[in-house]
Amino acid sequence: MPNFFAPSPRGLEKLLAEELGEFGATELRVTDGGVGFSGDWGLCYHANLHSRFASRILWRVQAPMPYRNEQDIYQATFALPWTRWFDVTHTIRVNVTAIKSPLKSLEFITLKIKDALCDKFRSEKNARPSVDTLAPDMRIHAFFEGNQFTLYLDTSGDALFKRGVRQHTNIAPLRENLAAGILKIAGWQPGIPLLDPMCGSGTFLIEAAQMSLNIAPGIGRQFAFEKIKNFDAAKWSALREQAIAKQLPPQPLPIFGSDLYGDALKTARRNLEEAGLVECVQLKQANVLEISAPADAGVLVANLPYGERMGDLEELEVLYPKLGDALKQKFAGWRIYLFTADRAILKLMRLSPSRKTPLFNGAIECRLLEYKITAGSHRK
To answer: Which fold has domain 3-154?
Structure first.
């Protein structure tokens, strides 16, 4: 049975393992930054189509093996049956990641892996695939840890957080799979009122609306596995048809978004329109300090501005205490989840978080802070 690895934003690994287990994956192995698992090709297709938390689904084509030098890696790569997996007409890209590897140059080892693959094609097909670093048909991922290396063929193509819907972004966008993970950690479920008062380009809103309508996150895009030679078109077509049959029609939902800036709101509206979800979400331009709760109880989630995003720390030092007061006064009965990389918020908000969850937005270490606002908790 094939072995796979699904990388994810750091902090979401356990959620991803639970999700893959629900899909039917076996031999789940949680590591920093992802989950290894086993399953058939139908599971691979299903995970690409339905996973909300994975960044990619990588097929392991070379189990971890020891190496001493670059030549060992060249020979191991050359020995693999690349021509059985994809055509010479497909473009390629090699990505290399290393942890505590004795190799001196990742650029050189990337070149050696590419040369070995191309030499294999030339020896068997008398032609070699071309390299395309921007939009390759096939991505080969090499992972080095100490004196072991593993090779993967990417079954996803573009990263899975590229859902095929949100094309227009503002400054410091949140990746879709991280947004989905934050909603899951927050305990939000379809039907519970959701408010994002700093909605930006609308990532939380779109993820929540898709979840509410049973829209598979990958239904609007294509995948690299469709170009692998063992592709089962009938199985894939059946999976897509099943997913489409479970979708609910767009309808008004208790999902609310606002932003101080009109340009951000225009971007969110355009993204919702292009995703076919504009009637599902209520948008309005408003200052987060002046907005009122749209329901008696619910979940408020926000990707707070922080220094690397806004560059004006003095402005944030004024905002945070006021935000804490506004939440206490207007959101009794709500659960608040604020996502930020700014540790200063813990002192400035004048609220004590009931939970702090470490998460990474790309390489930036962040915290998801949970606040439970009870009636009478604000100062007189």
So the answer is: VC0802-like (3.30.2130)
Tens digit of pLDDT for each residue in 223-262?
A: 999 999 999 999 999 999 999 999 999 999 999 999 999 9
Contact 109, 96 (CB under 8 A): yes
Q: Which residues of the chain are in CATH 3.30.2130.30 domains?
A: 3-154
Of 339, 300, 342, the residue nearest 178 (C-alpha): 339
Tokens of 352: 């004590």
Residue with tokens 């309005």: 284
Written as one letter, the residue type at 224 is A
Q: What CATH number belongs to 176-217+248-372? A: 3.40.50.150
Dump pLDDT digits (tens) for 312-338. 667 778 888 999 999 999 999 999 999
SS3 84: helix
What is the three-class DSSP state of 379?
coil
pLDDT score, position 380? 38
Quick check: 327 and 373 in contact, CB under 8 A? yes
Contacts (Cβ under 8 Å, ≥6 apart) of 238: none
In the chain, residues under CATH classification 3.40.50.150 are 176-217+248-372
Amino acid (1-letter code) at residue 320: Y
